[in-house]
Amino acid sequence: MDFSYSEEQQMLQDSVQKFVQRHYAFEDRRGIVASDAGYSAEHWALFAELGWLTVPFAEEDGGFGGLATDLMVLMEEFGHAMVVEPFIPTAVLGGGLLASLGNAAQKEALATLMEGGLQLAVALYEEQSRYNLANVCTSAQRDGEGYVLSGSKVLVLNGGNAERLLVSARTSGDSCDRDGISLFMIDMASAGVYCHGYTTVDGHRAAQVRLDRVRVPASALLGDEGASLCALEQAIDRAALCVSAEAVGAMDTLLHKTVEYSKTRKQFGITISSFQALQHRMANMFIECQLARSVVLMAAMKLDSDLPDAEKAKAVSAAKSRVGKAIRQVGQEAVQLHGGIGITDELDVGHLFKRVTAIETLFGNTDFHTRRFAAL
Prior knowledge:
By secondary structure, this protein is an alpha+beta fold. The protein has helices at residues 7-23, 26-34, 41-49, 68-81, 87-101, 104-114, 229-262, 276-303, 309-338, 348-361, 366-375; strands at residues 120-123, 139-143, 146-153, 164-170, 181-187, 193-199, 205-217, 221-222, 266-267, 270-271. The chain has three domains: 7-87 and 97-118, Butyryl-Coa Dehydrogenase, subunit A, domain 1, CATH 1.10.540; 121-227, Butyryl-CoA Dehydrogenase, subunit A, domain 2; 230-375, Butyryl-CoA Dehydrogenase, subunit A, domain 3, CATH 1.20.140. The chain is 51% helix and 15% strand. The two termini are 25 Å apart.
């Protein structure tokens, strides 16, 4: 089995590395995070110009190919620099669902998205649902030729910046039934949509969204009524793989910065890198990083294969669980080996630690995916 990158993937990797070197120094990122939008519109335009917004989509939809292994290449490099632009909520989640469930007319929005002219947010989680996408209390009731949506959603990534919202709502059944869940695309400016944005611990943007009798036409429905859950789960799995790859990149940076710091920090007149006990701890960090990267690559390859959906889901859960365990060890060791400076705002180590800690909980935490892996 060949694990090496293709020529196209190497070119993609090189383009992201050059972008990061030119535009994403740590101080630049701090300024972006502190801005009103929480991302750089100039960078987003570059994402489109460089073709990165086409990576999640198949060629028939005008994309780069839609391979999970391509996404892994991109997201791992994003992880090195802690990129905060809303690539996952807009392109991977929102765009992915639009591509998988939308009809020809609805898919016309994909071209605008890939050109950088449309941002999306996806509202799937509710206060009581935890990671269960079937636990939906938001309702969508028939009203003439359209629907009326009511309910509340939490942790809506990029909710404050999005022009359109993809929201799951129950059109039939009880709150935890797998059947009866539909997906709608609505304008954020619609009457009855209330959005409260906030900054997460890692500097990204999210929102709580309340829908108060929001009226939408029948054309707002994506896919068949009451049959969207499988597509939602597959989209979340793809997003989970993306953040796992991002964590691999971030942990690799944490490892290298810790090793370099240990070569300059002195105790008892010698550098701490000469202490065998600390060498062992850094060696364990390296092992965890390599294990995490291997299992994420395997999951990406399985997503690109013809395996049954259950096998693909199992591979994603294996990756997210393994990465979550690595995050705890690599992140904590990096901070401890740096000492107090490791949690200061002026050093990127603390920001990397916050990002990987947030990733551990996104789209299912370690415990959730461990149980899911065992059940599949």
